[in-house]
Amino acid sequence: MNDIDLMTKIVSLCKRRGFVFQSSEIYGGLKSSYDYGPLGVELKRNIAAAWWRSMVYERDDICGIDASIIMHPKVWETSGHVAGFSDPLVDCLNCKERFRGDKAPRLPVGSEVTFLKGGKSGAEKIKGTVKACGYVCPVCGSSELSDERQFNGMFRTSLGPVDPLDEFFREIKGKDLSEKEMRGLYEESLRRSLVYLRPETAQAMFVQFLNVQQSASMKVPFGIAQQGKSFRNEIVVEHFIFRSCEFEQMEMEFFVEPGTHQQWLKYWTDERMKWYRRYANQGENFRLRQHEATELAHYSDDCYDVEYLYPWGWGELEGIASRTDYDLKRHAAATGVKLSYFDQNKPDPETGKPGWRYVPYVIEPAAGLTRSVLAFLLDAYSEEHGVDASGQEKIRVVLKLHPSIAPVKAAVLPLVKKDGQPEKAAAIAKALREAGLNVACDEQQSIGKRYAKHDEIGTPFCITVDPETMQSDTVTVRYRDTAEQKRMSIADCVETVIASVRHPS
Ligand code: ATP
User: Fold this and answer.
1) What CATH code is carried by the domain that includes residue 476?
2) pTM of the prediction?
3) Is the pLDDT score of 3 beyond 70?
4) Which atom of ligand 1 is closest in space to residue 368's alpha carbon?
């Protein structure tokens, strides 16, 4: 199976089995918007729960928040997003593709390139020379490109019952204005009600630093964790749910004493790699990559990406940045509120006197939840080739998701729809549901087809109720990854399933 095939198979499986659908599909779909179906919502929630468990429940130095998506617009001015959250937008003058200059294929300035006039389907070959930008069009390879324009990725909207456009037209009515003056008035009428959809969850953790620290009596080092939707008006959306405009993040800001930040960065890169590998089948497909100095954001003194080997190559799954004291200092300066911490047990390093007030440094592991859904699906997908009873070649598709993140933990399957078997199956399902597990009771189709469906959606166990069950209270348990079957008592079977969903340590 080549890598492009794998992606096509994942997208098709997602739709066929109900993991991910194109949003508004019956209206022709909306570019880059996706809906998580009955299985996708379970997988996404389970990954989020696994993260929350490791970040919040398993420790006493991190607590969670759930902040508004729409925050005060000044937050985004202070954080630097209004001025700087932009990507270089470039138009290809040959094929009309719009792309990000910083992600385009780089070539030495002055080198010669050949591309097809009008784009990939063109017939005439033309020559060009790579300009000072040092890249070419990612689609047709042309060097004929527009200049870069900075495009701000934040979604803007209006808060309150005002229509900035109405206000603008009222303002300009009867006035003879230049384009510049009109633009100024338009920006002004937008500004009065302007708010942004958050492009990251992180800023709320800085803005609520004091409230959380004081209300929960947290002592540095401590962290604030949050999961939720973020929005970026991406120039290029790509690879299914890898990059979309609406997505979900899992971020944690860990506040530490200045001078200890490098050791905490090391700690969090180790922790986060362990977390991914605990749930993965192929741990070697997750790696850490340190940022080059030229890649670092201006507020960051060191940063690592957790990367996954996607079908198109290594790409980001999570960023783990040492953000210094930049954010707290900026918000403190903008609001006049002292966003600092007083450690009464430590002497001030400057004066030597007891008690030290300082602005904590921050380590930020920032993961993509929706991107993790894709990575774990890719990691779990496997095909086993064999032959069926009639000698025909068959492929068994298995999603080897860790039981703790699998959408359905067990399927209870009566062999026939009579003789009390459906009722017995329902009783077993009830016992598992009472333990808090999402289980399926499935009576339709042949037992073979039901096994195949549950292999394909990653259900770790199929529990078959047959005539013997009615005599001896035993069932056959079929293990997804090996297709091995074992007969055991119903009590042992319930125990086996419950034990399997425990999170790996
Ligand atoms: P990229 O380089 O892929 O654009 P980024 O460095 O801008 O990502 P961060 O700002 O560090 O991303 O956000 C943290 C995480 O949020 C990313 O590692 C990724 O998993 C996720 N993420 C960011 N942008 C998107 C998006 N448009 N769609 C899906 N997930 C995203």
Assistant:
1) 3.40.50.800
2) 0.94
3) no
4) 20
